[in-house]
Sequence to fold (235 residues):
Amino acid sequence: MRINKFIAECGITSRRGADELIKQGVVSVNGKITTELGLDVNPDVDKVFVQGKRVKLVNRQVYIMFYKPKGVICSASDEHGRKTVYDYLDIKQKLAIVGRLDYDSEGLLLLTNDGDMVNKLTHPSNKIPKTYLVKTEGEFTADEIKKLKGKVDIGEGEETSGANVVLLESGDGKSKLQITLREGKNREIRRMCESLNKNVIFLKRIEIAGVRLGGLARGTYRYLTPREINLLKKA
Fold:
């Protein structure tokens, strides 16, 4: 982001006014005075001061990708003292989780303070695609894969509406699949596999609406790129 735009969005002055402040030598970035009008700054990393006072964006929308480890819950707190997603974040803004994962699953979580995006990505009617890597005990036959792709009775009066399923590996009593869902029933993939007497031993979400998990170790996060944010807004 250009520094004059950044200062303007912090509510200090207009872009033209910001240019004047820069020319006056009263703007510093990371401890160094700058007079470069076209300087780019990263709002998430760089520290910008105007006349000795640090300035920050007003009501800035934040978009985070987090690699949730297994054994972490998607909640702000836990009465049993288990770790939550928020224990891993060092961010002041209050962020909502987009698309939860159960305690025994790992992978991609999105977090944001953009309420419109949260509603858009989580409302069932929008059928946002979410892709998972799944490992099971038990080998799948071609007929069983066909059944997973259709409507599956997962118990408790619930039925899936269909999934995109690709069998990646099968042998030695185990299988590896890639499954894409467009709904969000509780423990849906585990229940789908259980309906065919297959036990899920590993489940990792790798993609939401075209945004793929990448460049992160378990328990770490990063800000989404403009391209990724645009993908979500167009989903």
